[in-house]
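Quick start: what a row looks like.
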Amino acid sequence: MSILLGGFLVMLLNSLVLVLFDRSTALVYMSNVLLHVGLGLLLIVPLLLFLLAHIRTMPLRWNLRATAAGVFTALSMGVLLVSGILLFWGTPTLNRRVLLTLHVVSMFTSLLGFLVHVSLKRGVRFRFLLPEGIAALRRGQVLRHPLTLTFCAGVVVSVAFFLVPWLKQPDPVYLDTGNENPLAASEALLAHEGFFKEATLSGSKTCGQAGCHPDIYAQWEASAHHFSSFNNPYYRRSIEYMLERRPVEAARWCASCHDPVMLFSGRFGHRMPLDTTHWTAHEGITCLSCHAITGLRDLRGNGRYVIAEPDEYPFARSTNPVGQWLHRQLIRAKPEPHREAMLRPVHRTEQFCSTCHKVGLPPAVNYYRWLRGQNEYDAWQMSGVSGNTVRSFYLPAQPRTCIDCHMPLVPSDDQATTGALCAATVSWLPTRRCPSSKATTSSSGLRRRFCRTPSPRSICFWCASTVAPTAPTNPCPYCVPAIGWS
């Protein structure tokens, strides 16, 4: 009995942590969720043994009211355990909001049933819960009474439940960072000291595993973002040309938008010389390269953002099947911290796109003077589409942002989507088909193009895929020979 009550007391304290710190970091919060699940599983066997022993030894008909309260408590605890198991192991089709509500309500009904059950038992052991026992208490004893302490704890939990989310302020879009930049000539900043590990921003394939974002990963894999780094022959040759005439520091100016994995791991001439054959040089703009950004320095573009180490769930980087399964189950059980960590307020704004899609060449790069480069953000801002100008000769019925056109919602089978829709990332692809390509259709109806007859060592930018040489005598007219491609 003491082991069971002690275990449930620990679970209640753990539940209090889950309530009070519902908006804390994903790693800390989900580690407590994992502890909560583990404690619940460990208490199943002692609970069953106690119930069997209690039923065998107690005269059930001697006190029918206490028996009824005990049966109610046992049923509530059964609902509590079953709803908890379904929350963690249930299929995605289950209504988790209903299950969570049932889980919380059954916790309170279990506590209430237990208190009623022990108060109705005849004997001196639980006399302090009876009305005559409470009436016999002195004033000083009232404050130390278990019911008084329980009531005060309930008030604290109730107030904290509403107060903590109210005190939580949304993350700002712009961050005051000053002018110092240890990554110069890159204009991006790390939110903490030291470089990332090489694997910190990589591993987009993990996001695309079954049960998470396979459709979004398939779109990214064939996108220009994936081929932004040294896996792009044009970019690779541009940097090689630049390094022939400028020091590596000047090339870092490009890296904050084209090579974030290399830049923030110190492989862009910081900790070690630039190596364009290393695997980090072919990662491109990964999922976490954008989703780890916490805010913008200003609206000047050129990759002027602040990035922090991603706040991931436990076992996010595990290569063990058990660890990967636990990671997926934790996200399914409680996706809100993951969503808040990976989709910050800045990600929902058009200003977020401007940090890399607004370019100005500084003197540190061209050794001349400041020059404007491509600037899609200001072009949008000054057009009628933005709804922010009076000079445009046309105005659409509704203003549209970058996301509205370039990331429209499309049908998806991803379990992580809402309403069977996900934000597309392939709208940049041309509508004209590569004449020597074939199209395949995924389970969600998204079409991906692959070259059928590419030239040797090439990338088809119509197909947006790295392709192997299959028919060199009949090259695809839209495939671009990869200069120095390896």
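That is the whole record. Residues 26-57 form the longest helix (32 residues). The chain is about 45% helix and 10% strand.
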